[in-house]
Amino acid sequence: MAQLTLNSLYKTYEGGARAAVSDVSISVRDGGFLALLGPSGCGKTTVLRMIAGFEHPSDGTIQLGDRTLAGAGKMVPPEHRNMAMVFQSYALWPHMSVADNVGYPLKVRGVSGEARRRKVMEALSTVRLEPYADRRPADLSGGQRQRVALARCLVTEPAVVLLDEPLANLDRHLRQEMEETFREFHARSGATMIYVTHDQAEAMALATDVAVMSEGRLLQLATPEEIYARPEGALVGGLIGQGSILQVPLLTGEQRLFDWHALRHLLTDRRPGHSSDMLVRPQDVEIVEGGMSATVASVLFEGERYALKLALADGQLLRAFSRQPVKVGDVLGIVIRSGWRL
Amino acid sequence: MFGSAKSGNSQPRWLFPFVIVVIFLLSVLPLGRLAATGISSAFRSGASDLITDPALWQSVYYTVTTSFFGMLAAIVLGGGFALLLTLFDLRCKTLIGFLFMLPTMIPPQVTALAWIGMTGPSSALLKAIGLAPPLGSPQPLYSAGGIALLYGVQHAPLVYLSLRAGLLALPRDAVEAARLSGASSWRVLKDIILPLSLPGFTAGAAIAFVSGVGNFGIPAILGIPASIYTLPTLIYSKFAAFGPNTFADVSLLSGLIAILAVIGLAIEERVLRGRDYRVIGLSGQVAVFSLGPWRILAELVLWLTLLIILVMPMLALIASSLAPAYGVPLSLKTVTFHAYEEIIYRQAITRIAFTNSIGLSLATAFGLLLVSVLIGYFIVRSRSRIAPVLSAIAEIPYALPGVVTAVAFILVFAAPLPVLGFSIYGTIWIILIAYFSHFLAVSLKPVVSAFRQIDPSLEEAARLSGAGFGRRMWDIVVPLVGPAAGASVILVFLIACNELTVSALLWSAGTQTLGVVIYNLDDSGSFNLASALSVLVVVMVIVMMLILELMAKRLPKGVIPWRS
């Protein structure tokens, strides 16, 4: 197994106004779990399809270890890349039984008889579907189909496993169960996994690395913790975690992390002109007597707490949590423990 | 066997050249050759002889008038059936619809024979019930009016289908909204449904007109005895009296037919393009109006019409086939299976025709299936802009009347083949290749609609599993389009087996098809033998239509031409 490297990938379509993928460079270490995160149409699926070999990069290279998969006039077709993919629609062949679906990659590779049957049953047991081996995909539920698709990936020990929004068609309860299955699968197989999603919670929960994309460009590539704590730019800040972005007077220094002392000064500074974006997480907003005053604009009861939207004196909105019930229109005192300049 | 593609494209490298070569051979080459010969002979000195020939303009006149009045008859019949069966709460709708669709699948020469057997002084059926007009009175169908009437019967299903498709696409909620706005049933019909169904009407009428222009079987049997020639039968007679100018003349005549057909098809294309508003609202369930006490009357009218246009002609055909000779009254004493014995056991020519027609149709159906799977795959999967163009070119030969295809292939293959040095003109191979060209669109359509229904990821998953092109086609794609492929084979077989227009110009001794033999038997006066053979053909048609009907649930929408 080896490291998967995307080297300044571009993809433009005939007649497309802008590049679908533009200058994306990512390196996924062997055994890593990379989530490609971004809103729909950001180019993440195109990147995945280029890795699989369904799309030809317009420029740039894709390498797996020292083997060039695409670029420099070379193109390894998908059938020779030793990859596997879980499709959003699962892509199970309706005319084959579950066991035949799972065993197809082996059949193509010329594995037959007892060896194939054993491997298929092994793969099915990892996803706990052995009793369903002879069923047709049409007889299975959504989650079971998903697990068949996963077993089909497992059976050949591929170098890279690609997952294209695999949870998009499942209900919330099944999603949690499947997330667990994916984690287990990753830990057990040790395969490099690339996971495309528009759901940041999913990305953060599963991946060892998160790549945030927007409009075909890679905005930030980091571990989930890093990307949560130190997002780059308003787009990433708005996409990852809950938080409010406040406009503060233009900041030019090196400083990114601000405490209450500095923030209070910035928020009361009413000079007109250019502004900087300041990300404030709701858990960093404390409600205390004698803090800066803010008016409750909306209240949402979430069970363990109340989620508030507070209006500051200049009308900017701030998210916060409260353990006590409050009413719309109440005036509270607040202290912002920390803010991150985007 | 299959080379693998180097690009991200899923097609092997040989597929594109293959598609180009096939479509060139089957469509571009013959039609291009026809156009070239037509244009060059139009500027030749002898062309003025043809253009000033009153017989030509007489036949243009007959072609246009019979097709036009045939279209009117088709509109009345097909429109009436479509409106009544689609919009109202009648009983046995499926059965009535199926029976009404039968005439369009019955070969036109058989329809013509059946109607001759039903009317006129020699009708075995009328004689059996003592209603036959006195001997010597004229057969009323040997006239332009008779031709137009039979065009109407034969092509009414086309109007029916086109209008019905439009009506079924009308969303029920649009009708319900109108009802809630206070409109009565009749107002809704007048203000909402009829205006919205007008494009379907017009398109159906245009197809009916084009089909009349290209019809050969009906004017050949009804027109030629009365010296009424339409353009297709005029071409046929030019070939019968072969002369030095024949090729030039027929290419001009075919060009005229093609122009008339293109005008009709352009009208159809135009009105259907304006039908975009049908996607608004939840479609699929059509509003059904209650006819109340009128229902029984409507049902009576429909069944009576079916009796006249289908049951009686078919009974007449059977009666003619059981009568000992043309004109002899049929009774329990005179009834004989002599004609069947004759065509099945004695006549070498009918056996040759069965062998030829069935062999040609099987070869066409299965050969075209292979071609269609590859071309269809290319059309659906290719992202290049040339794919829709190729698909349109592939459909031209079927859209044009069969006479045009036949003449085009005669022009291409009359001379010996280059390099090989022999000619396939006059052999069965020219009929086969003309069939390939003419029926490509019939075979392609079900396959393409099935391909469009396949989620591309099913094939991508197979690619990632390591399967190359041939492997994927065999393991994944072909099983998934299986039902549609089966329908494609049966449809092509059904249509090719009953076809007369293409083979009428291409046959020679030993290569007669069923259509040609039925026509020739009638032409030589063996009316009862022609009828018996026609009865067998009709039985075959009904059996195959029933097989397709049984398959219908497993097929993509729009694959079976008589279901909407």
Automatic annotation (TrEMBL), chain A:
Domain called ABC transporter: residue spans: 4-240
Membrane topology designation: Peripheral membrane protein
Main subcellular location: membrane
Annotated keywords: ATP-binding, Nucleotide-binding, Transport
UniProt GO MF annotations: ABC-type transporter activity; ATP binding; ATP hydrolysis activity
GO CC term (a single one): ATP-binding cassette (ABC) transporter complex
Gene3D superfamilies: P-loop containing nucleotide triphosphate hydrolases
Signal peptide limits: none
Location(s), subcellular: Cell inner membrane
Pfam name, any one: ABC_tran
Family: Belongs to the ABC transporter superfamily.
Protein name: Carbohydrate ABC transporter ATP-binding protein (CUT1 family)
Organism: Neorhizobium alkalisoli
From TrEMBL, chain B:
Protein's GO biological process: transmembrane transport
GO cellular component, one term: plasma membrane
Bilayer topology: Multi-pass membrane protein
Keyword Cytoplasm attached: no
InterPro entries with a match to the protein in the record: MetI-like, MetI-like_sf
Transmembrane segments: 68-88, 95-116, 192-210, 216-235, 247-267, 279-297, 304-326, 358-380, 392-416, 422-444, 480-507, 527-548
Compartmental location: Cell inner membrane; Cell membrane
Top-rank taxon: Bacteria
Signal peptide extent: none
Domain ABC transmembrane type-1, residue spans: 60-268, 354-548
Keywords: Cell inner membrane, Cell membrane, Membrane, Transmembrane, Transmembrane helix, Transport
Similarity comment: family membership: Belongs to the binding-protein-dependent transport system permease family.
PANTHER family documented for this protein: FE(3+)-TRANSPORT SYSTEM PERMEASE PROTEIN FBPB 2 (PTHR43357:SF3), INNER MEMBRANE ABC TRANSPORTER PERMEASE PROTEIN YDCV (PTHR43357)
The protein's name: Iron(III) transport system permease protein
